[in-house]
Protein 1
Amino acid sequence: MLTRRALLQLAAAAVPGLLVGCGAGFDPDAVPESITRFPRTPMSGDVTSTRAVLTFHVADDTPVVLRVWTGEEVVLDSAIEPNGDGFHKVMVDDLVPGTEYHYAVFSGKPRRFEERSLIGRFRTWPSEDTREPVSIALLACVGQGTILPDYYYPEGMPVPTTEPIQWEVFTHAREHDLDAIVHLGDQAYLDYVWELQDGTVEAYLNAWGAFHGGGYRDVYPLAPLYATWDDHEATDNSDFDPWDTTPEIDAKVANAQEAWYRVMPIDAMTPSEAPVWRSFRFGGTVELVLLDCRYELQEDHLMSTAQLDFLLDRIESSPCRFVCVATPRPFANITSDPALAADNQDRWEAYTADRGRVTALLDALDARHVVFVAGDLHMNYLGRVSLEGDAPSQDAWEVCVTSGNVNPLAGGLSREQFELVDTRPHLPILTFDPDAGTIHVAFYARDGSLTFERTLDDV
Ligand SMILES: [Fe+2]
């Protein structure tokens, strides 16, 4: 892990005479993009008020320069050396709170860049005494609006994946001013890497290219990513139970997780360094709590005690106006629909002890500022977490997103509990307004049109 100071020293050592802070005249668009050298989108993520994590892939594993700049100046040139596979992650520190930055990877020397990657942007968060509106886009379960997901098909299958996968719904993301992107899991469907390629790290890294070289290029450059995962980043959850595995399964899971930590801009190099569950404060406006509902699963618990304690602590202690709990699996009770209940028993409602600890705290605190966002179910909805009751633990709002995969059972949801239910791919955007005390929820359809909006004013 490198500090900005170390990176600057590294860059200066590698590029004699390099001037940092000479942004005047730098025109990144004048450098042609190379999709051959940089086929995948670079990503920023886990951005705080002073720190950002950047990941990128250099397909030919040649030396490159990672540049970060503002409208006024270049703030970082980092010389990146070949490392064997071209996957890189760089932590950048000492950034200025509340500032917009741009980043890209370049071949050639800083004074004569030859080719570049896509150009991304992120904004560092203001200090916690600043309360500004914050807009967050939700992603989960990419697909084409069909029941069957967008699997990556390795060579040897009847129709192998040879081209990057595209999704229309993300092509309209640029029409919005986004502060953050939250991915709730099933960011890629890698089941056949598990099944047919022995689930090796190399195979997982390679397969991510079908997704990060595809439709994610339309959305990840727009804002920092805060990602959690679900099952298909490794394989379908029906392939194993986390509490009952074999050494072979453990090895494949470890490989999938290692690959995920390498390609994702999560603020850790390996799973052992930091868990997927973590939280971020977007100024004083909203604290985003990201959960791992998959790999800490036990037979009778949705997650480890440590993770559940962490969630409760963040709900109770957060100084922010709102708390947004990103739970890949829905917190809402959906038992009103028997078919759905039978289809997916591994939601919060199946773990009554764990869920009960959360609901007890919400009610004890009279916490109405907590909103849940979820994926996994392959449907979009806005609703209350319970069909009946007006206690905070029953009345809380939940937004569920599918970016593409469709669950034909969605029609069974109670329209009394869920005022919007729509299976078609959508891009939901939540705007947290601390002064108004509201959360605006908007769902944008595949063609970019607004399907539904509602301002939540009881939060
Ligand atoms: Fe999914």
Protein 2
Amino acid sequence: MAGADSGRDWLIRGGTLIPIDGPVRPGDLLIRQGRIAALLSPGSPAAEVPVLDASGCLVLPGLVQAHVHLCQTLFRGRADDLPLLRWLRERVWPYEAALDETSLRAAARLGAAELLLSGTTTILDMGTVHGQDALADAIAQTGLRATLGKAMMDRGEGVPRRLRETTRESLAESDALCRRWHGAAEGRIRYAYAPRFILSCSDALLRGVAERVADGDDRGPRAHTHAAEQRDEVALVRARMGTDNIHGLRRLGIAGPRTVLAHCVHTDARQRRTLARDGTHVVHCPSSNLKLGSGVAPIAELLALGASVALGADGAPCNNNLDGFLELRLAALLQKARRGAATLPAARALELATLGGARALGLEQEIGTLAVGKLADVIVVEPRVLHATPQADPVEMLVYALRGSDVRDVLVDGRLLVRGRTLTPLTGLDVEALRAEAEQQAQRVRQRAGL
Ligand SMILES: [Zn+2]
């Protein structure tokens, strides 16, 4: 069975297994041809596969971030201390309008490297309006698992001309991209139609997206947009639609189990009941919501209603990191500040960061837990660090004490992409080269944008 599948068989030996949907226990993880073949008792007889020694380490599914923008990574630190609509109109949209294929590839590589090194193995990405093939290709080449799609914008105040499309162009280009990328890279890449938010999309565009997503099942493309992020935006949506984001989108067909909404910060009890009843996925982006001054999303209330919730770092200009461990910790802490210290306990928060993300992407049969038959998207975390000493409960350490930089090894599809905190040649990524490329490309984009 060597050949095409070589490099995708592993025995991760001697660690503490954290399956997410079952008890934490010491054990070995056997991976064959990129899938989890067995969860074994410690000291099981050696299989004839390469061994990854995980003695003293924590072994768990890779984090799934269900809302990021890798196209924005070169704009880290260049849009600070602004509220959402000014942040978009004065900085982020002019920046996106100045991206070309070379800078998009640099942004994607930088973002993917940061994500992999900090233990994120799957993302839902919103691209920009143009250059999506270059962005998707660059992401695919790193080995990261991604559901992705170009941003769609056919109206809106303050949108640069280069980012403004006609409704027909936007849908046609998205359809062509969906045909090219949905299921590409051995199934690692999937497509999500991504109307940016109500204020930059016509009703016709949103209806067109709803029609394209409605016919599918979990194997089909998703709809991915922003909703109810900030008060100004909510007021403008109400002025245009006569209702709130959640019910406005729903009226146009953007709702249900194939729809993913980032933020949902400003949602009342009625909107939350609608989200839960429809099975629409909510992505909580706590750092972004704090930094843009948006507020704190009512995640405890959504979870109490049985709503589907995932986590995401959003983009580098509004975070300014893509480390899923920061989002995990912050998500848990913020709900405690709102509702008391017992709210969103560690195990539940970790579930949102893994299985919750997998559900949002329709991939819960394939990733998000350590279960036999699932794809081997696995991370090995080193807890023997000063900031987690003395050692305590593994799940609580992961949520409250450990950091993305404590991730030692990362596998996606059974391929070892990070080993000993270093990107392997399978990623095509090198940290020093990436830094140089990103600095150079970021400067060129800023010059073109006049920023
Ligand atoms: Zn976003």
